[in-house]
Design brief:
The complex is a heterodimer of chains A (111) and B (116). Chain A contains no helices and 11 strands. Chain A is mainly β and 111 residues long. In chain A, the strands form 2 sheets. In chain A, strands 2, 4, 5, 9, 10 and 11 form a 6-stranded mixed β-sheet that branches. In chain A, strand 6 (55-57) and strand 7 (60-65) form a beta hairpin. The N and C termini of chain A lie far apart (36 Å). Chain B is 0% helix and 50% strand. Chain B is built from no helices and 11 strands. Chain B is mainly beta. The chains are: A mainly beta (111), B mainly beta (116). The A-B interface holds A 31-34, 41-46, 49-51, 87, 91, 95-104 and B 31, 33, 35, 41-45, 48, 50, 55-56, 58, 88, 90, 92, 94, 98-110, 112.
Chain lengths: 111, 116
């Protein structure tokens, strides 16, 4: 079982839709949480860090539930340019901050 | 803003050859991480360096070695290449404070290694 599990996807949604991605992590020592996006054959790009209080950046909202070890990402008003793979990522206390990635969820936004 | 630089961007090698991948972190970033991403897979941590010392080691084969130099750039040396080493190799760097998220890492464009 992977340390970080994500919805398998792919998610195919029309422009303007709201889409939610879920992620769970198994190591309770996880201390930092992120969503990265990755376009095909490109590097992962930091989308946003995720805080216990929840945080929002424009159309993107991330939530963290430490008790349930659950992370979510909500994308509102989807754009064609949002099409990518979204990676749920954690790092662990004492792990020298190496990142542990989920398998990613592919999003395809169509006109 | 300056980003992580990796070279070369593409590399084609034969089995049993050696390869050297280079990474130049964002200025003033003191920690470098190497990740390997095979086809259809998520990135896997290989090794990291903090202030020129190895800080952590992941699933890196004994055939691979790496180091960080005084200017903070890092090199990943790969010997006796195998077909299974074909992958994207990413370098990421982290600032001393880790950013607001505590551990924000920024990735370079990667080196695509193909072993024939």
């Amino acid at each position: 079982r992977k340390e970080v599990e994500q919805d398998p996807g792919p998610f195919n949604v029309p422009e303007g839709a709201t889409v939610a991605f879920n992620c769970t992590y198994s190591n309770s020592a996880s201390q930092s949480f992120f969503w990265y996006r990755q376009d095909c054959r490109k590097e992962p790009k930091l989308l946003m860090s995720v805080y216990s209080s929840g945080n929002e950046d424009g159309r993107f909202t991330a939530q963290l539930n430490r008790a349930s070890q659950y992370i979510s990402l909500l994308i509102r008003d989807s754009k064609l340019s949002d099409s990518a793979t979204y990676l749920c990522v954690v790092s662990i206390i004492g792990g020298y901050n190496k990142l542990i990635f989920g398998a990613g969820t592919r999003l395809a936004v169509h006109p | 803003a300056a980003g992580v630089i990796q070279s070369p961007r593409h590399l084609i090698k034969e089995k049993r050859e050696t390869a050297t991948l280079k990474c130049y972190p964002i200025p003033r970033h003191d920690t470098v991480y190497w990740y390997q991403q095979g086809p259809g897979q998520d990135p896997q941590f290989l090794i990291s360096f903090y202030e020129k010392m190895q800080s952590d080691k992941g699933s890196i084969p004994d055939r691979f070695s790496a180091q960080q130099f005084s200017d903070y750039h890092s090199e990943l040396n790969m010997s006796s290449l195998e077909l299974g080493d074909s992958a994207l190799y990413f370098c990421a760097s982290r600032s001393p404070g880790g950013g607001r998220g505590g551990n924000e890492q920024f990735f370079g464009p990667g080196t695509r290694l193909t072993v024939l």
